[in-house]
Amino acid sequence: MIAEPSALECVLLVALPALLGVAVLRIAGVRFGSDQLAFAAWTWPAGAFVLALIELVCLLLGITQHYWLAVVAVAVVAACAFAWRTRAATPGATTPAPRKHRWDDVVFWSVVGLGAFATVLAALAAAAEPCVIADEGTLWAMKARAFSYDWFAGDFVRAQGLSTHADYPPLNPLLQAWTHALASGFTLFSNRVPIQLCTLSLWLATAAALRRRVPGWLAGLLLLVLLLDPFWHAACLSAEADSMVALGLVIGCDAWLRSRTSDDRGHWAVASLGLAFALWSKNEATLYFASACLAAGVVAVAARRSEVAPAAKRRWPYWLALPLGVVVWQWAWNHWFHFQNDLAGGNPLGKSFRELFVAQFADRIGPVLAEIAGLLVRWDRAHGVLLLVLLAPLLWPRVALARPLGIVTLALLFGLLGANLVYVGSWLELHYHLTTSHARVLFQLVPVSLLWFAALYREATALPRAERRESPVVAVAHWRHSAP
Amino acid sequence: MFARPTMPARWTFPTAAGIAVLWLGCRLAALPAAWSARSGVWSRAETALTKPRQWRVLASTGISPEEVAALGVLRPDGRLIAYGDLGRVPDAQRGYAELLLDMQHHRLRSLLYPNPSDTRRANSPDELRAMVAEPCAGEVVVADLSQSGEPLPVEQFTLLHEERHDGILVRYWRRSTPR
Question: ipTM of the assembly?
Fold first, then answer.
């Protein structure tokens, strides 16, 4: 039955996950007062992630959608009660924010307000059309209906087998299924709302991350780069998961960089949550996560080889347990249901990625390189910031490759490389695959690249002149020595 | 890996910043054009706020409330087949006809799922016969986009509903004796 939530249900649709998010952040040790904009930006993804976890547990326990509202309401009350009893974390030795001027704040907040308004307006405009066309309708919304209906009808595997991407992670569809539970039917319009709130959170999270590192005028300019890209407008209009990946990456990277300077346990938790959020949104995030792990390994090996630095105390990154858990869970989920990725062999050709990559490399590498080169210099796209990622190790190696920023630089480089190499080994016709997804997929990396650039700028301008001239090896060593 | 020669940051950073400002200037100069291109966002927002759900579905997909009501006979155990005899379409128009058929199939599926959960596309009478012959516990409805005005090439189906939207005729046929 087609239905839409009532006004009260619309309030619950947003308010319950938001309350969950506030409670989760407080329990994790994040203080509202330390960065109000960041707290506001992180609230929705935190709540949405926990909401999806609750829904997943309900599915596994066979609790039908009629009871989801009650279950979530109980969870909200319990989380809020626990958060209320949790003592607020003591302020850590946070990095001092950039010097603020009144005009600087006016520029920054004007751009933030403009972007938020444009995002909400576009999201509202999307409701002129039902969510039945393109990937948002035929892929994501259909997966949501599979959770709402097929799961309980015992037809989940067969129905997903007809889907083009049965292996995609379920965070997006689970959030859409929340609207089905509230409306007691299948929604055509309001199922976009939870995803569009992720896009709004992405805007606020990027703004908070930039403002923390660069002056307001520069943060405003960088935000305009994002806002003026046509893909931003498209992200606001649709219920696809690309902006969710971008949101998770921005939150994960921002919180991780914050944790390196303040050792605030709340930031470790948020970094963990951000990465897990991205990994549970779409498969590309697994590639970016693997890139980040590889980058961390490269930087660690390079730092260990330098004789300048003393041996640093080893700390096992427990915070990685959640993102790693999501990776393992998703693998087990697909393995259990026999869902296979089309690039990994689950395609009509029946060939693995490696086979296709080797066979097609000579023919495809040229067109793929030409596509990325053309994209990076297009003046009407924001992808130009990725060109800076490519050039930074050559132009500013002392800053770009020093820890912890070096890990982000290399992770972005590896991620960019990997995302392009996917097209070499793709089973789809190259022109079709490039046209339909290349720029859109790489746009996932644009917001986190803007954050990276802001961090690069901050590091470059914060270092004393003498230190800037030091060899990068010395810079790495200093980071090792001073890192908490 | 870190000890390669570097370009002086004191001029590369301002150069990069200059290029960025130039780029942004170009983008901002093109803002009026971009805004006018997106001005539809205002009218679409107004549509979203003022028009009823059925009106927006019809305007976007071409599927009327009457069609949705007629297809209400379908339950999850039923089957909906989008049919068009592409072999009778002239070569020059076949690509468009196939696209139309595919879009209608996906729109109906996305709109109605899981009522029915089984939706298919038949491009020829033979494909249609084979799909109709397969066992089905519930109702079978055929969305006929063949534009021929002739009866279906399979027996036991009666006309359920007929709709013409933007010059495209869609006739819905229901199996009169469900198995």
Answer: 0.84
